[in-house]
């Protein structure tokens, strides 16, 4: 009997290999969470790109407005110097005012959208 107890005491414990029942769930959660993180990163990058584009668009419209106002002032000075015919003056002024009104419309629409946020 003592021999049997010595034999049992000398044996190393055996580990049992039991499959993890949550193994598949763990990988699903990792993949789902990673997909969500990738989506949120791409969404924030897209929002940043749109904000930069809006800012550049607004700056471009402001520059175009200033250029049109300068052209109108130049046209007025040419009229006063009698270097342009009255008919051509009226046509160019009409064209410049139309372009300016379109630029101001776009700027106003941008302001309305910014105020709505």
Query: How many strand segments?
Result: 0
User: What's the average pLDDT?
Assistant: 85
Largest sheet: none
Oligomer: single chain
How many helical elements?
A: 3
| Global geometry | rod-shaped
Order of helices and strands: HHH
Strand content: under 5%
Q: If you compute it from the alpha carbons, what radius of gyration comes out, rounded to the nearest whole angstrom?
A: 38 Å
Termini, distance in Å? 87 Å
Low-confidence regions: none
Characteristics:
single chain, 117 residues, mainly alpha, 84% helix, 0% strand
Walk me through what this model shows.
The longest helix is centred in the middle third of the chain and has 58 residues, at 23-80. The mean pLDDT is 85. This protein has 117 residues and is mainly alpha-helical. It is 84% helix and 0% strand.
Short account of what is shown:
This protein has helices at 2-10, 23-80, 86-116. By secondary structure, it is mostly helical.
Write the layout of secondary structure elements.
Blueprint (H helix, E strand, L loop, with lengths): L1 H9 L12 H58 L5 H31 L1
Helix pairs in contact: 2-3
């Amino acid at each position: 009997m003592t021999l049997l107890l010595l034999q049992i005491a000398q044996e190393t414990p055996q580990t049992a290999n039991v499959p993890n029942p949550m193994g598949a769930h763990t990988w699903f959660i990792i993949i789902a969470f990673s997909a969500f993180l990738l989506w949120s990163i791409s969404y924030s990058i897209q929002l940043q790109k749109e904000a930069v584009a809006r800012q550049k668009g607004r700056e471009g419209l402001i520059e175009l407005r200033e250029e049109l106002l300068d052209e109108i002032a130049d046209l007025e000075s040419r009229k006063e110097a009698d270097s342009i015919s009255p008919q051509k003056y009226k046509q160019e002024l009409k064209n410049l005012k139309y372009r300016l009104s379109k630029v101001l419309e776009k700027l106003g629409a941008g302001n309305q959208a910014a105020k709505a946020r």
